[in-house]
Amino acid sequence: MDKENTISVIVAALNEESRLEPTVQKAVASAKRFFADYEVLIFNDGSVDRTGEIADRLEAGSEKIRAFHHARPRNLGGVFRHGVKQAAMKYLVLINGKNDVTAESLSAIFSLRGKTDLVVPYIQNEKERSLPRRIVSRTFTFLLNICFGMRLRYFNDSVLHLRENLLKIDIRTDSYAFQAEALIKLIKNGCSYVEVGVNNRFEKGVATKAFRWKNVKGVARFFILTMRDVYFPKTK
């Protein structure tokens, strides 16, 4: 086995009983195509439907799949941090259990493995999102680029990481800004990256959760703490 070409796929699932299995099947197919070995880590993040049951069934059917259960939702950032600790492979990526990442997108991301430290996707079919969601996304990206001296087109998609690099940084947020925090800290630490355009699948008629107080508070906390970590690091 080529230990330099292995991947841990983290699947975050909150009440995704109808979409978890096709998401995992897609992840397995893509991992087999591009990597010598793989594992899929399913995180049932406090679901109240059959997501946990399906995760356990998938685990029982394959030695490459492991299921983890959170009694309460830890959100995407919490799942990511837990996944980094549990992962055993060289590369690592998180995808959402709602089956929004397409096979073509995974192929575009995985095909660039080994080129740089990070493969950073950006959404090409953004116009398929609702207008409020596009406004939030563009504002978020603009502010992060300005405040942290970055030049990324997007911060919140399924970034392909080297696990060893993630172990060197402290990701504090449990909010959906976890990927932005990781990218900012890794790139500031000298990690190289390449961007790749992807087309994701979006649900029509689903309102954005970005304006919920819990999410607003989580992102605000991420911003303040990341500013402090980057510009005013603690001296040992």
How would you characterize the overall build of this protein?
- The chain is α/β, with parallel strands linked by helices.
- The protein is built from eight helices and seven strands.
- The protein has helices spanning 20-34, 51-60, 75-86, 103-110, 131-148, 163-166, 178-188, 213-231, and strands spanning 6-13, 37-45, 65-70, 91-96, 118-123, 161-162, 193-198.
- It has a five-stranded mixed beta sheet, sandwiched between helices.
- β2 (37-45), α2 and β3 form a beta-alpha-beta unit.
- The longest helix is centred in the C-terminal third of the chain and has 19 residues, at 213-231.
- The radius of gyration is 17 Å and the shape is globular.
Can you summarize this structure?
This protein is 41% helix and 18% strand. It has eight helices and seven strands, in the order E-H-E-H-E-H-E-H-E-H-E-H-H-E-H.
Helices, by number, come to: 8
Number of strands: 7
Largest sheet: 5 strands, mixed
Radius of gyration: 17 Å
Q: What would you call the shape? A: globular
The low-confidence runs, each spanning 5 or more residues with pLDDT under 50, are none
Strand content: 15-25%
SS class = alpha/beta
Helices and strands, in order, run as EHEHEHEHEHEHHEH
Mean pLDDT: 93
Q: Helix amount, in percent?
A: 40-55%
Neighbour order of strands in the largest sheet: 3-2-1-4-6
Distance between the termini: 40 Å
